[in-house]
């Protein structure tokens, strides 16, 4: 009973605290109002105009709050509503406000969503490829910070599409390959189909027809809809035509031209009919003029201007030999349409044919040269611009991370200074005691780690020696024993000498494999040559980030260990995995090189991985220099390895 008076007094004191004086209750009420307005802005039961009014009211109430999560959510919602309403001028102005205050919004996903929305706007509404690429690139970086690999890969695919549309096929191929490390077939099958199709188109434009056929075939196999599959089959047939394989193109186009699904997509039907007619004419010189005209008429009715370019060009080629005047008229029409929709590449193609008809026409030649030079300059400018956007965004992200680190360090310093003012003598003494204990602990730990590292190095060396001994006994020793038996049996001298020469070459190759690794300035060339040599003829090797690594600045020991590690992975892949696609991604910082290896082979179980001495030796070598390697593999699901090497 004696404790009750104390509880009563405590209750009275708490009740008398001036709770409203510091504004806490006001802030709580304001947050409640903001949430009410925000909830109304996302409700399906109110009009778009009411949603916009609600979000504006919520933003007005939130303008003085230091609540970045609320503010960022409200800012993005307003952008979304402006886009839905088609109020694009206000959307652009609002985005400028978002960029101005984005330092107050500390949530990467909100930033990513905002930049993605603007990328979509410039891409699909304004057709401004430059700003679309810039915003998609910024969205990609923010999704990566938010650890959303699926959307990171999606942004990279959209960037690759823009590069492809601007004839930057090499750049598009590199960007699409980068997207692969963020996508998973089991989770992102639709994006993977887009990846295959886009990579196939880049290979086709770069005249790598076999690779284009390979990836179009994969896209067809994985397509989830009939419309997508037909589109990819048409592109595959066009690749056959480009490669002179007309019979295969005709067989494929004959199969799909009669599909009833094309009844609802006349533009696609016209594209397939035009390609089929073109392939039949190229193969057999058949009279396909009526088919060409039918495809052209559909394209005129549907205002398919790009399709008309193809039709007029094919009709010009069709009449080139026997009716040059009619061919000239078609090519002149190509030029008119190309100028109308600003496709200079089509005009250049038409000028090539017109110069065949009238080789003495100086104006045609001068126009062709002017256009070709202008187009080359424009494409070079575009490629440089895309590369700059990616580089600038990378630098910006590094700057953000550096500023965040400095901010954290400054906050820590401020906290320390504040705490120092309240630390008493007893606290200082406790700190000194703790510091002494920490020093003692870390000295002991350092001694233990040094001893452990020494044992690891010794263990790796002994295992390597054991592996060398086994190979010398099993391979070289068996051959030597056979040679001795041949000598005792008086076998022909030439056969004995051939056997000895083979043993000499075997010992030289063994010595080179064990010891010879070019280091220093020649390391990069030797390393890449090893990768090319170890890649099977029926497999594709994709590498990104090679140019970003300062190879010459790596320590010689790190170069040797990296060479041996990747060589062992490639040897293991070639012997066991049956992979047809290998991806290696390099990323470097000031002190660490990170290597992500993956292939789509048969994979291995944990028991099989533990049984591989080569992989075990590789792990020991890397650990001995302070690096790390982790394996991720399951039977039938490919093989992955993540490696870090100190520079």
UniProtKB/TrEMBL annotation:
E.C. number, please? 2.7.13.3
Highest taxon above the source species: Bacteria
InterPro entries, per the entry = HATPase_C_sf (IPR036890), Sensor_HK_TwoCompSys (IPR050482), TPR-like_helical_dom_sf (IPR011990), TPR_rpt (IPR019734)
Q: What is this protein called?
A: histidine kinase
The UniProt entry, under Gene3D superfamilies, shows:
Histidine kinase-like ATPase, C-terminal domain (3.30.565.10), Tetratricopeptide repeat domain (1.25.40.10)
UniProt entry tagged with the keyword Transferase:
yes
| Sequence intervals crossing the membrane | 423-442
Which reactions does this protein catalyse? ATP + protein L-histidine = ADP + protein N-phospho-L-histidine
The answer to whether UniProt assigns keyword Transferase to this entry is: yes
Q: What class of enzyme is it?
A: transferase
Q: Tell me the SMART domains matching this sequence.
A: TPR
State the SUPFAM superfamilies in the record: ATPase domain of HSP90 chaperone/DNA topoisomerase II/histidine kinase, TPR-like
Key words of the record: Kinase, Membrane, Transferase, Transmembrane, Transmembrane helix, Two-component regulatory system
